[in-house]
């Protein structure tokens, strides 16, 4: 994978029009931003472009825009207002439903060096997600330089992150946030400092097929937890009761167990399990649990989390590691009683000196909720994108940037 990309540090943007694709896909409630982490994460790149005297044109998608009725609730206007406050200078909002319209063109034409404008939600245009040529050309017509800082959409080839690069004469580079993702996720998988331990959890084996296979080739130890562990236990011939099962994936799990053995890799599965009679309703309800060895799950019980012996086993594996990648919870972590495994893994990662990389999604949420966020080397900003990186796939949004 070509991971040596030109970044904002490799170009001179003074006096140039810079189209910067950010990830401003923030949660909104009644027009107010409820979590501004993504805005804060984008600031270093934006500030760099302003300081260098670029004319900074920001763009992003926000949510899914299926119909005309969706548009008012998916406007980026609140983002422009909040960014103005965070940057301490006006971020002019170009409110065109067609994104690249009269307002946007006039605003760009009037820009001074160091000015910032924000275009309307790129998904107001249906062609955005189809990488349509016309919209890509319109975006490119506004700019001399393109900067992609949106890792969250890097696994999708859309107009605003891939198509635009095909119609721009100037350089196409990555921003600081993208650079960090490439450095940590890309290099963790391609050239890890060993021992390299990968921890995979979450509900379904099906979601992680390629990740399991790719990481087995790269890591020294692969740890499996979460709902998908029970399909592996079933593949070993154990009774798993009413636990989650991907019954079409039992043979696949057998293959992976054999693959680990043939490659001389450790594949760790839960040795004990926290069981309940049924799934908690609601999900955070108080619930009675029993702990059994993983080969002794009663036929009428459901495995919901890793048990204390497994926690000790997994924590020990983390202690010896130099690089750890974690994606997916160890149990039903939305329930305080069934979150012990996930919490323990987070705590083990917080205490180690290893490079610790959290692959977005639920693991990132868990680490942040538990207050360990600042103890991790890197928390990915993209769930789907980080998974595809861990599969060893080339991400279109990364590939589109110029190589060094």
Tell me the CATH superfamily of the largest domain.
Phosphoglycerate kinase, N-terminal domain
Total strand segments = 17
Shape: elongated
The chain-level mean pLDDT equals 95
The end-to-end distance, rounded to whole angstroms, is 13 Å
What is the topology, as strand order, of the major beta sheet? 5-6-4-1-7-8
Gyration radius, rounded: 23 Å
Second-tier CATH architecture of the largest domain = 3-Layer(aba) Sandwich
Number of H- or I-type helical stretches = 13
Q: Strand content of the residues, in percent?
A: 15-25%
In the CATH hierarchy, the third-tier topology of the largest domain is known as Rossmann fold
- What is the chain-wise order of helices and strands? EEEHEHEHEHEEHEHEHHEEEEHEHEHEHH
Which class of secondary structure composition applies to the elements?
alpha/beta
Structure description:
This protein is of the alpha/beta class. The protein has two domains: 8-178, Rossmann fold (3-Layer(aba) Sandwich); 192-390, 3-Layer(aba) Sandwich (Rossmann fold), CATH 3.40.50.1260. Helices cover 33% and strands 16% of the residues. The protein has 13 helices and 17 strands. The chain has helices spanning 37-51, 77-87, 102-109, 133-141, 176-190, 209-218, 229-235, 250-263, 308-319, 340-351, 361-369, 383-390, 396-399; strands at 17-21, 28-29, 32-33, 55-59, 91-94, 116-119, 145-148, 172-174, 196-200, 221-224, 266-268, 272-276, 290-293, 302-306, 323-327, 355-358, 378-379. The chain has a six-stranded parallel β-sheet, sandwiched between helices. A six-stranded parallel β-sheet has the order 11-10-9-15-16-17, sandwiched between helices. A three-stranded antiparallel β-sheet has the order 13-12-14.
């Amino acid at each position: 994978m070509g991971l040596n990309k030109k970044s904002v540090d490799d170009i001179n943007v003074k006096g140039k029009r810079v189209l910067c694709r950010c990830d401003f896909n923030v949660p909104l409630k009644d027009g107010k931003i409820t979590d501004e982490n993504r805005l804060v994460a984008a600031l270093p790149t934006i500030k760099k472009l302003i300081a260098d005297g670029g004319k900074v044109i920001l763009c992003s998608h926000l949510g899914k825009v299926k119909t005309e009725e969706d548009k008012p609730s998916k406007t980026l206007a609140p983002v422009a207002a909040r960014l103005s406050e965070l940057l301490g200078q006006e971020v002019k909002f170009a409110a065109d439903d067609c994104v690249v319209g009269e307002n946007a063109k006039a605003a760009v034409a009037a820009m001074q060096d160091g000015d910032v404008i924000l275009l309307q939600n790129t998904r107001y245009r249906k062609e955005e997600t189809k990488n349509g040529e016309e919209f890509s050309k319109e975006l490119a017509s506004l700019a001399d330089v393109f900067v992609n800082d949106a890792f969250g959409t890097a696994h999708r080839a859309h107009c605003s992150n891939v198509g635009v690069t095909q119609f721009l004469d100037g350089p196409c580079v990555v921003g600081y946030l993208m650079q960090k993702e490439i450095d940590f996720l890309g290099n963790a998988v391609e050239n890890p400092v060993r021992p390299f331990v990968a921890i995979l959890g979450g509900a379904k084996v099906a979601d992680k097929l390629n990740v399991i296979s790719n990481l087995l080739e790269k890591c020294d130890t692969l740890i499996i937890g979460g709902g998908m562990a029970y399909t592996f236990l079933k593949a070993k011939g154990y009774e798993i009761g009413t636990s989650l099962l991907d019954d079409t994936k039992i043979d696949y799990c057998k293959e992976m167990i054999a693959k680990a053995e043939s490659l001389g890799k450790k594949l760790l599965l839960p040795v004990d399990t926290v069981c309940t009679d049924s799934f908690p309703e609601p999900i955070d309800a108080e619930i009675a649990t029993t702990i059994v060895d993983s080969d002794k799950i009663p036929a009428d019980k459901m495995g919901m989390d890793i048990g204390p012996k497994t926690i000790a086993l997994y924590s020990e594996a983390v202690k010896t590691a130099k690089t750890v990648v974690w994606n997916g919870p160890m149990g039903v972590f939305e329930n305080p009683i069934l979150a012990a495994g996930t919490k323990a893994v987070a705590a083990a990662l917080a205490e180690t000196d290893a490079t610790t990389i959290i692959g977005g999604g639920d693991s990132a949420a868990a680490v942040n909720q538990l207050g360990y966020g600042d103890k991790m080397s890197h928390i990915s900003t993209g769930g789907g994108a980080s998974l595809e990186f861990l599969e060893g796939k080339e991400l279109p949004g990364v590939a589109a940037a110029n190589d060094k």
